[in-house]
Amino acid sequence: MTQPKEKLDKGKLLELYRKMVLIRRFEEKASELRQAGFIPGFLHPYIGQEAVAVGTCAALEASDVITSTHRGHGHMLARGADPKRMYAELYARQDGYNRAKGGSLHMIDTELGFLGANGIVGGGIPLATGAALQLRRKGSKGVAVSFFGDGATNQGSFHESLNLASLWKLPVIFVCENNLYGEFTPQDKHQPIRDIARRADSYAMPGEIADGNNVLDMLRVTTEAAGRARSGGGPTLVEAKTYRHRGHYEGDMGRYRSAEEVEEWMAKDPILNLETELLQDSRIAQQELDHVRDDIEEQLDAAAGFAEASPHPHPEEALEDVFAGSNRAAPS
Amino acid sequence: MTQPKEKLDKGKLLELYRKMVLIRRFEEKASELRQAGFIPGFLHPYIGQEAVAVGTCAALEASDVITSTHRGHGHMLARGADPKRMYAELYARQDGYNRAKGGSLHMIDTELGFLGANGIVGGGIPLATGAALQLRRKGSKGVAVSFFGDGATNQGSFHESLNLASLWKLPVIFVCENNLYGEFTPQDKHQPIRDIARRADSYAMPGEIADGNNVLDMLRVTTEAAGRARSGGGPTLVEAKTYRHRGHYEGDMGRYRSAEEVEEWMAKDPILNLETELLQDSRIAQQELDHVRDDIEEQLDAAAGFAEASPHPHPEEALEDVFAGSNRAAPS
Amino acid sequence: MTTMTYAQAIREGLDEAMTADNEVFLIGEDIGEAGGVFGVTKGLWGKYEDRVFDTPISEEALVGAAAGAALLGGRPVAEIMFSDFSTLAMDMLVNQAAKTSYMTGGRLSCPITVRMVTGTAGATAAQHSQSLEAWFTHTPGLKCVAPSTPADAKALIKTAIEDPDPVLFFEHKMLYNLKGEVPGELDDLPLGKGKVVRSGSDVTIVSYLKTLHEAVKAAENLESDGISAEVFDPRSLVPFDREGLGASLERTGRLVIAHEAPTTNGFGAEIAAIASESFWGLLKGPLVRVCGRDTPVPYAPELEGFVLPDAQRITESVHQMMKQEVATKA
Amino acid sequence: MTTMTYAQAIREGLDEAMTADNEVFLIGEDIGEAGGVFGVTKGLWGKYEDRVFDTPISEEALVGAAAGAALLGGRPVAEIMFSDFSTLAMDMLVNQAAKTSYMTGGRLSCPITVRMVTGTAGATAAQHSQSLEAWFTHTPGLKCVAPSTPADAKALIKTAIEDPDPVLFFEHKMLYNLKGEVPGELDDLPLGKGKVVRSGSDVTIVSYLKTLHEAVKAAENLESDGISAEVFDPRSLVPFDREGLGASLERTGRLVIAHEAPTTNGFGAEIAAIASESFWGLLKGPLVRVCGRDTPVPYAPELEGFVLPDAQRITESVHQMMKQEVATKA
Ligand SMILES: Cc1ncc(C[n+]2csc(CCOP(=O)(O)OP(=O)(O)O)c2C)c(N)n1
Ligand SMILES: Cc1ncc(C[n+]2csc(CCOP(=O)(O)OP(=O)(O)O)c2C)c(N)n1
Ligand SMILES: [Mg+2]
Ligand SMILES: [Mg+2]
After folding, report:
1. Phi, psi of D30 (to 5 degrees)
2. Are residues C60 and C161 in the same domain?
3. With a cut of 0.85, is the ipTM above it?
4. pLDDT tens, residue by residue, C170-179
5. Are residues D174 and D201 in the same domain?
6. Residues of chain C with pLDDT under 70
7. Which chain A residues contact residue C92 at CB under 8 A?
8. CA distance C136 to chain B (A)
9. With bands split at pLDDT 50, 70 and 90, how would you rate the model's confidence at D327?
């Protein structure tokens, strides 16, 4: 079922590992930094779901674009975003991706085609559909990827967008991260189905289930979907079965989940998963993994340092950017 | 497949026939009255779809409630509404169902549990779901029926409501009248599926296809759905395959449809269908059908007369009813 | 100069914008082969088949698709068949398109144009008649345009499409058949430039869309009663031509505001607030709003007529204003 | 008298309404066992398990379900977790609930209460911080309530639930922890009755929700500068207490309006319009709005602080108003 790891070269395997650890540690550190008072806003940690973002983004090309969610740091890092500018944004500083105007919920990197985290559950889905329309209009081979959660699949925007995308055979991959909860509500209290992939049939669209805790399986399924999209075969709904290790947001203790359930999923930790696999691979030694981890620690320390050193915005900057182009100030 | 007509007593069969002819003639006459300048607003004739409303409403009890659409006259008449007050409303007179404030798109009859036509495509679906919740809360055995078109099944409200209704096992029947067009757009240009009943599976809900031009088949399928709903089995999506004979609204010539297609469906006219069947029934003679038709002509002439005699509203009445209860006037 | 209807003028504006820029495309319900319920886009599908998109009845997805395409450089023009249905696309309009530039610190923009088919068309009742512009003037990040004549409609639809920000373009259904002169070579018309439609010295009537024409009629009535009314059409509501309003008040010292939307918190409230904050010294007495009454739009023509402002109500209000002033002075 | 927070007061109001009337039920996202993201409904699920409904993330369906139940006699109270998400339920709020009574000629009504969790909670940014009340004050058929203290919140949530019409109940997140005295036996508090929170003779500051408390601080500042400011809290926006406003202006002759929502076309514009239409004679000079700037709400605390009105900005505006008046007189 999963992409045989032998097919991937060592560098690519290590890169998948690096990205996943980067996300994990970025989020853990963000949590500490928030507790220490450096980050003023909401945080929705991606911890536990790293394989979804990393596997999917490994299937993408430079011409592809992404829309994301409130839980967007992982998607952004998997796409290659700069932790320095991400922390700077979380710190609400001038060097942040959004010049301190957006914060975690709205972060973008236009150069990477990362069209934004989104504070509205389901809000990114229509935007990805429109982005795919534009990619097709321009004759690009690019695809649009929309990440969203199980909870989002009960929003009208999900339905309308999947219908439109399939009708027009747009190059989109709809990646649903089914982590079994929408906020504090378990899936069986928010929808009467278990396999969300099943909803694809309403749109005559392929619906695939992937192991969201296995980066190679994610890579396999999304590579297939991307191929279909690029060749005019239209969109795919990919359901990644996964779990968030932490609460819904920083501060939520996740008490609505049983200890057994958490434990069971902790044992399926996507990073441990990959580590074990990699270490069984004769080409890769523990030491290399340690090295990756060390590098990441350095990188993140530097990133936090960068954020802290970045200047605070000037209050009057609040009036800029309401409108694009030359007329940036809010008219009064 | 269809309910054997022998099972129904003759009175009930004739009543089905009467209702269908009443709707047909009500709409034809409304069209004439509009052309003659008596009716100021939009009309969306139900002609051709009579079997859907009549079959469904024949499966209902007094405790049941209905939400409808822009094409609502048929649903209302099938439920037993008074043509006098309907024409009076279309004429915009005081004796109209909505005291001349609503018109065709918003007509109600609260005594019949007819909660309203609706000018918003998909607008009635969440309301029916909520009505079903209230029926269940009150321990009623009532069910809520929501009529809507194929076009409406691409609205977010359809998706969100079906999910909620199935999750909570609410007593609702979602009746989709698939007449193959949403306004001027054929189904294959608005959704990538042909059988809308297929969408039920996304909500783990039964999805049934019925012959919307066969009143007995409609009765059979909706009776089953109502039984399931009343006994706690939750909602059903019923797709009625049908066709509108006329344009989308009065004035639309329907040129976007091929002559062959129209002809093919005209041959399946639900009233002719039933007439042929009834005349094969030894209990029923042509004369009885003629009698039904004559009665209806009289009734409708009287209804139009009533409407014309009804007083116009006084302009200042426009300020009433913004708020319910004692404080009816708009605050200024 | 050609004489054409308001609907034709919008169509020509769209046509010219599509010819000028391949990124311009149209998206909406039944706007393609059918040419739109009001015929505004008639013929464009034939001319630009791959740039005119008929969508399912999915307002959120269609505005979202426009917004998503705009993020990547598209210049979509979305039609909301009746602006009442914008209720279903509010998230895309308000939380996505309007805030894109700001939330991203100016790094992304969302240049969509949304054609909002506005106002009553006569007995169209509560869910097909609304004038919702004030929701959007209250939404930072959106620009709002409301042309009242064919010439303005043509010029401003082009300006709206070229604008780098999301622009809501309010078109009044009852104006679609209104005829007017449109110059062959139209000058660019920037947003935020109002127009004195009729000069006067006693009172300024600010109005737009269909009600503007009622205001002009009122001014004609008033003239025969010896009152000289100036009629000011802001043409765009955001940005709003404060200078133009101020200059007019300087000439007249009195202000009447008229629009079809309900009075309470309509855009007239904003005009009133601007006047009483910034042009207080110019005003000789209380201003007056002659706007839609605070009710949904009723079906019956008699009721609808009572609810909406017309020339007669505007005329009477001006008379009353002048009378009261005399009474106060006495 | 008990001291309790604003959140507790709302909870007690809900609790008492549920005890009094079986038709009252709660519906929203994570309001049940979890007690709501801000804890407002904590404990009510335990007490009324079958009358507290946790829904999927489907704002349109949840408000629609409330509205549909209300058509059959239910008295649902829906929570919009962040009022920003009401964008997704606008059709149910505006085209359905608001218009039910009117469109049906008074034959049906839709008595829902919708709790709109409003305003910034500090760095909550553009999509979780909005103050959208002006959309709804502009929607005929809706009533709008905006309590600023625990006592008012408790009394008014009960009034809202008992009201036969759809009522939008705006709660400010930053007030949830505000403590205040709440009488054990609360008198009924009708909608449309404002309150003079602080008496004064030089200027009236009209404000509500969180900004009201900034206005009170401003009034305290002003007092030490020898300026006597009256603070008027309308408590409900629709219906609005015109008489209360007029009475206050009679005492002071000057008007400052302060709220968190953006300035342009905010409810402050309506207050300004009312004052300049109806109380012109009482005003000694131009009124002033001290409201949210016309931007989305930014993330960074420094930026957010710049955008939102506070005691300092209100104080300065009053000073400037008084100074300009002197200058004009001189
Ligand atoms: C429209 C909307 N409704 C509600 C919320 C509040 N909210 C934020 S995240 C969330 C849960 C989302 O669940 P899911 O889609 O499964 O994503 P997950 O958090 O599990 O990654 C909710 C309800 C929101 N942000 N937007
Ligand atoms: C939200 C919304 N969008 C668009 C319209 C305009 N409109 C009225 S009826 C209609 C077609 C509806 O198609 P369908 O649901 O199939 O019903 P039918 O007319 O075929 O009975 C459209 C687009 C509307 N009334 N409401
Ligand atoms: Mg989830
Ligand atoms: Mg149809």
Report:
1. 55, 35
2. yes
3. yes
4. 999 999 999 9
5. no
6. 329-330
7. 126
8. 21
9. confident
Which of C157, C182, C207 is where one domain is finished?
A: C182
Which residue type sits at A29?
K
Find the farthest-apart pair of alpha carbons in chain D and give their distance in angstroms, rounded: 69
Pocket lining: B247 vs ligand 2, CB cutoff 6 Å: no
D68 and B135 within 8 Å at the Cβ level: the answer is no
In this complex, the residue of A106, A130, A324 whose CB is nearest that of residue C103 is A106
Structure token digits, residue A135: 């990619």
Residue numbers of the domain that contains D301: 195-329
Token code pair at residue C114:
């949304």
CB spacing of C273 vs D277 below 8 angstroms: no
User: In the predicted model, is pLDDT for residue A30 greater than 50?
Assistant: yes
Residue type, D186: L
Do D249 and D204 meet the contact criterion of CB atoms below 8 Å apart? Answer: yes
Is the shortest distance between the CB of B121 and ligand 2 below 6 Å? yes
Q: What whole-number distance in Å separates Cα of residue C155 and Cα of residue C10? A: 8
Do D146 and D209 lie in one domain? The reply is no
Instruction: Taking residues B10-17, report their average pLDDT.
Output: 96
Which DSSP category does C79 fall into? E
Cβ contact A155–B155 (<8 Å): no
pLDDT tens-digit readout, D156-171: 999 999 999 999 999 9
- How many domains does chain D contain in total? 2
Residues C222 and C174 in one domain: no
Please report all neighbours of C, defined by 3+ CB atom pairs within 8 A.
Answer: A, B, D
Would you state the torsion angle of the CA atoms of residues A110, A115, A120, A122, taken in this order, to the nearest 10 degrees?
A: -170
Backbone angles phi, psi at A100, to 5 degrees: 70, 10
Helices (H), chain B: 10-35, 50-58, 73-78, 83-90, 124-137, 156-167, 215-230, 259-266, 270-280, 286-309
Confidence of residue A332 (pLDDT cuts 50, 70, 90): very low
Q: What is the pLDDT of residue D129?
A: 98
Q: Among the residues of chain A, which ranges form H helices?
A: 10-35, 50-58, 73-78, 83-90, 124-137, 156-167, 215-230, 259-266, 270-280, 286-309
| Interface contact A330-C70, CB threshold 8 A | no
Facing C54 at nearest CB: one of B103, B120, B189: B189
What is the Cα–Cα distance from C7 to C44, expressed in whole angstroms? 13
**What average pLDDT score do residues B14-21 get?**
98
D241 within domain boundaries? yes
Please tell me the least confidently modeled range out of B318-327, D59-68, D173-182: B318-327
Ligand nearest to the CA of D88: 1
* pLDDT of amino acid C324: 87
Is D128 among the residues known to form the active site?
Answer: yes
**Is the CB of residue D126 less than 8 Å from the CB of residue A108?**
no
Beta-bridged to residue D2, according to DSSP, are D182
Cα(B199)–Cα(A88) distance, integer angstroms: 45
Atom of ligand 2 nearest to the CA of B248: 19
List, edge to edge, every strand of the sheet that includes D255-262: D195-198, D229-233, D203-207, D255-262, D288-292
Residue A88 has pLDDT above 90, yes or no: yes
The conformation of residue B82, written as its DSSP 8-state character, comes to: -
- As a whole-number percent, the residues of chain B with pLDDT over 90 amount to 93
Does residue D154 sit in the same domain as residue D288?
A: no
Among C128, C172, C213, C259, the active-site one is C128
* Span B106-116, average pLDDT: 98
Which D positions 134-193 lie with beta carbon below 8 A of chain C?
A: 134-135, 137-141
Q: Which ligand has the nearest atom to the CA of B184? A: 2
Q: For residue D91, what is the domain's CATH number?
A: 3.40.50.970
C273, D90, A126, B162: CA torsion to nearest 10:
180
Fold of A15-311: Rossmann fold (3.40.50)
Residues A9, A63, A199: CA angle, nearest 5 degrees: 85
Alpha-carbon C144 to chain mean position: 7
State how far the Cα of A234 lies from the Cα of A136, in Å rounded to an integer. Answer: 11
